[in-house]
Amino acid sequence: MKSFIVLALFVAVAVAVPVDPKTAVIEQYENNNIGVEGYNYAVKTSDGKVVSEQGVLKNVGTENEAMEVRGSFSYVDNDGKVYTVDYVANENGFQASGAHLPTV
Questions:
Q1: What is the Cα–Cα distance from 77 to 13, expressed in whole angstroms?
Q2: Which member of 7, 26, 39, 66 has the greatest number of CB atoms within 10 A?
Q3: What's the whole-model pTM score?
Q4: Is 52:72 a contact under the CB 8 Å cutoff?
Q5: What is the pairing mode between strands 26-32 and 38-45?
């Protein structure tokens, strides 16, 4: 489960990196991570990228304790079309959905 959370964080960070770091700047940054039962963060850049995520510890103190992560990221392509992916990651795996979600 921990490796999945790390993977989700790497995906979010990769999306937040601007295509041209010389021109894009961070317009908004929020981070709340005290390390107990959850976290959340949000980043918005001047080139239209937006990332947000929150994690909540579910079933605290039981053998079914698990972290649930919900988030989204979006970016603007060269033609001005916005692509958005919403996701949830929990004990049931990673589930993503989105508008203009590219196929693999």
A1: 18
A2: 39
A3: 0.68
A4: yes
A5: antiparallel
89 burial type by CB count under 10 A (0-12 exposed, 13-18 middle, 19+ buried): buried
CA end-to-end span of the chain, whole Å? 24
Read off the pLDDT of residues 5-49 as tens digits, 9 standing for 90 and up. 544 544 555 554 445 656 889 999 999 987 777 899 999 999 889
Using one digit for the tens of pLDDT, what is the confidence trace for 49-70?
999 999 999 988 899 888 899 9
Helix (H) or strand (E) holding 2: helix 2-16
Which residue type, as a one-letter code, is found at position 46? S
Q: d(Cα 65, Cα 63) in Å, to the nearest integer?
A: 6
